[in-house]
């Protein structure tokens, strides 16, 4: 009898090209996603050495980090424009498919991969972006890489990798009403810290994960990197198959049936073991709000801002003090009393159709507070078009939200969509780091529903009682 | 990349945990299309205020640290974004060695591809080094062949690093050229490999 394996080991074994004792293995990459910010130096490196892209058809490019979300026909920032023009030229020169500005499939790289069916179970997927872990929701081994590694994958379609340790994050129990996948992952990081996943690939298991939609699974896998894990994945099941069937790059007919069998057989074997396991009870998770400058600095919406004096360790005290100072917050006050000036609904964490539907469902004819600027940035042209078919754009606009063009936007504020210094934003994105949404901007991470509620109330409110 | 075997340099202490790559190089500087010239933007929001004036209270702005080449930081150094602009900025500023009790995975890899040696020491050791450097001009020697870190006042310790990055750093190899020596294996693999 063969030893039971996790999905991580199955994908690893399937994709190892070459092994050398006491060295990393050469791992084959099935899909390489590219965007404008982390690729120009890689293409330049190829050119300097006269190298080619080995598998242009296993490479796919889009523009997302730097794209404007208003007046997209004119890019005013010359340096941004050069970066986008450079990607277009590189894709032409090296024959790489591109969904650039103006293309009907353009969007955030981690939104369009799944949407187009490029993301599939069992694939090894890399991208010069740390949130590549998102694709793990499909049972793919997907992780972020640096630009030197982008160049390496372009040239060789492989990467040197040490076999990862496996971490089982088991989430059982039933999610309460108004509590989302975003709250699960924030609560998880709040419980175990921002580096409990370092050196591991996470598999999310348990009944709460099984009950989540693909969108919810993507939200959780997306934030694996905020726990230090380069990759996080979910074994494929019928939910995965149903999502994939009929998508552009997914095979059809008999080939689909074959693929389906292969994909389902990748799921972790019943008796497989992991290097480490941690657990979370979904029924205890409440809507979360981050108060500090990393995603583990997070409390339930009815909680109080922590007091540095509650810690014995001077370094821990200092860390809280430093975060409170940056965030302009006093200890021991309720987080739901904190007023906000901005709301951002978007990013590779929460900009899919389901996220926008859930965010819109909170509006119920109410208006955004006159003290709040609120923007909605769909994850892709496809999401935007579908949302508009459903009339979500009108619901948001009537409530006083702005309805923008797709891109990474205010998640990293590279394209000019920024929170001004000292101002506070309820954001559905993934990082509340100092300066992330703009120099001296103050970010609070929340779910899409919580973001809409905060936009209307002008401060954080418990979505469960906001009826 | 420039090989690194042994390095002696002035230590810059940065006693903060979870220094993320957004701090190391903020996003407004990621729009450039070359690998060079990022040093001037290193830790930008900590070094400069909103009017681009140097913040005098930030230690890296002290004249003596302009020659620092070893950074000792807190745990989980380099977490967050995969941007390789972070090691490009550190290297361009003059840092060749980063010492911390733990590193984020992607940042660690990115350093080793750019001739920067990330050294993992115990937390009590990094705290000791930070204290020494906060007190006075403090020099350390890092020997990658012997896997040792020492000063001239009696501090001496060893560190672990996997053989592969060690070899790459010592030799300054072009990793792609190394991989292409396995080109036949990749081609053979591709023949049988199923991707839908």
Automatic annotation (TrEMBL), chain A:
Coiled coil ranges: none
Enzyme's top EC category: lyase
Organism per entry: Pelagirhabdus alkalitolerans
Protein known as: 3-isopropylmalate dehydratase large subunit
Entry note: cofactor: Binds 1 [4Fe-4S] cluster per subunit.
One annotated GO molecular function: 4 iron, 4 sulfur cluster binding
Residue stretches making up the Aconitase/3-isopropylmalate dehydratase large subunit alpha/beta/alpha domain: 9-458
HAMAP family xrefs: LeuC_type1
Residues the record lists as binding [4Fe-4S] cluster: 348, 408, 411
Assembly behavior: Heterodimer of LeuC and LeuD.
From TrEMBL, chain B:
Organism (species): Pelagirhabdus alkalitolerans
The reaction(s) this protein catalyses: (2R,3S)-3-isopropylmalate = (2S)-2-isopropylmalate
PANTHER family, per the entry: 3-ISOPROPYLMALATE DEHYDRATASE SMALL SUBUNIT (PTHR43345:SF5), 3-ISOPROPYLMALATE DEHYDRATASE SMALL SUBUNIT 2-RELATED-RELATED (PTHR43345)
Domain of life of the organism encoding this protein: Bacteria
Pfam families: Aconitase_C
EC identifiers of the protein: 4.2.1.33
Record lineage: Bacteria, Bacillati, Bacillota, Bacilli, Bacillales
Pathway info: Amino-acid biosynthesis; L-leucine biosynthesis; L-leucine from 3-methyl-2-oxobutanoate: step 2/4
Subunit structure: Heterodimer of LeuC and LeuD.
Keywords tagged on the record: Amino-acid biosynthesis, Branched-chain amino acid biosynthesis, Leucine biosynthesis, Lyase
InterPro entries, per the entry: 3-IsopropMal_deHydase_ssu, Aconitase/3IPM_dehydase_swvl, AconitaseA/IPMdHydase_ssu_swvl, IPMI_Swivel, LeuD
Function of the molecule: Catalyzes the isomerization between 2-isopropylmalate and 3-isopropylmalate, via the formation of 2-isopropylmaleate.
Keyword match NADP: no
Name of the protein: 3-isopropylmalate dehydratase small subunit
UniProt record similarity statement: Belongs to the LeuD family. LeuD type 1 subfamily.
